[in-house]
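This section describes the prediction task in plain terms. A model, or a person checking by hand, is given the sequence of a single protein chain and must write out its three-dimensional structure as a string of C-alpha cells. No templates, partner chains or ligands are provided. The sample shown here is typical of the held-out split.
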Amino acid sequence: MKKIKEYILITIGLVFVAAGIEYFLVPNDLAAGGVSGLAIVINYYFPSISVGTFMLAANIILFFVAFILIGPSFGAKTIYASLGLSGIIWVMEKFFPIAKPLTNNLLLELIYGILISGVGMGIVFNQNASTGGTDIIAKILNKFFHINIGKALLISDLVVTLGALITFGAEKGMYALLGVILNGAVIDEVIQGINTVKEVKIISSKNEEIKKFILDELGRGVTIYYARGGFTNEEKDMLVVLLSRREFIKLREFIKDIDERAFITVSNVHEAFGEGFKSFD
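The expected answer:
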C-alpha cells in the first residue's frame, strides 16, 4: 500500500512537471536547466527530434548512474518517473499541443512554468525519486556532499543555461538562469513544506487528560520532561510531542476546551525520522 501511494504521488508530481515544461517553457524557448532544458536547445537545432524523445534517450544513459551511486530503490523510481515524464510530455505534444505561447509576457510565462514544474519536482524528490537527467546529478550531490536539492540542481544546471544563452541570445539566456534559480528555491520550499512537523511543548494542570488524548486520539507518542518554574519554584511536567499540522489543530482545540490557562509553545521541525514519520531510507 505504501509503494502504491508513493507511485501515485510521483505520477501527480510528473503531471505538474510536464505541464510546466510543455505549456510554459518550451513555447518560449526557456531552457531553464535539466535534460528538458537541454532538449529545448537540441530541438532548436534539430526540429525533428522532439523534446520528449530526446529526454527519453538521455535519461536511459543516466539511469545506470542512479543504480550504481544512489541505489536500486532510487533507480527504479527514477526509471518510472523519467519514462512517465517523457511519456506525459509526448502525449501533450501529440494530443494537446499549443501553437504559440499563452501570453506575450516572457517573465510571466517563466514564473508560472517554474512554479508549476518546481512543485511537481518537489513532490517527486520527496518520494526519493527523480525526474531523471540533471536531477540525478543533484541527488548524488545531495547524498554525498549534503547540499540541499535545490542548490545542487542549480549547480548541475549551469551548463544547460549557458547553452540556452548561446542558442537563444542573452535575454532568454538570462531568463533561463533566473528560472534555474527560482526552480531550486521552489523545490526546497515544497520539500520543506511537505516534511515540516510541529514540535509542541505543553505545561498544563490537565496533563493526564492531554497525554491520554495524544496517545489514544492522535496515535502519537509523547515525552515527559520535569520542569520547575523560575518565579514560583513550582515543579510541573512538560509534555513534548511531534505532530502534523492537522493533528496540532485538533490538539489545540482539545486543550482550549479543557484548560484555557495551559502554556503551549510551538516550533517547526523541518524533518522527523522514526516511527510515525519518515523512514531513514
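For orientation: The domain at 196-269 is CATH 3.30.70.120 (Alpha-Beta Plaits).
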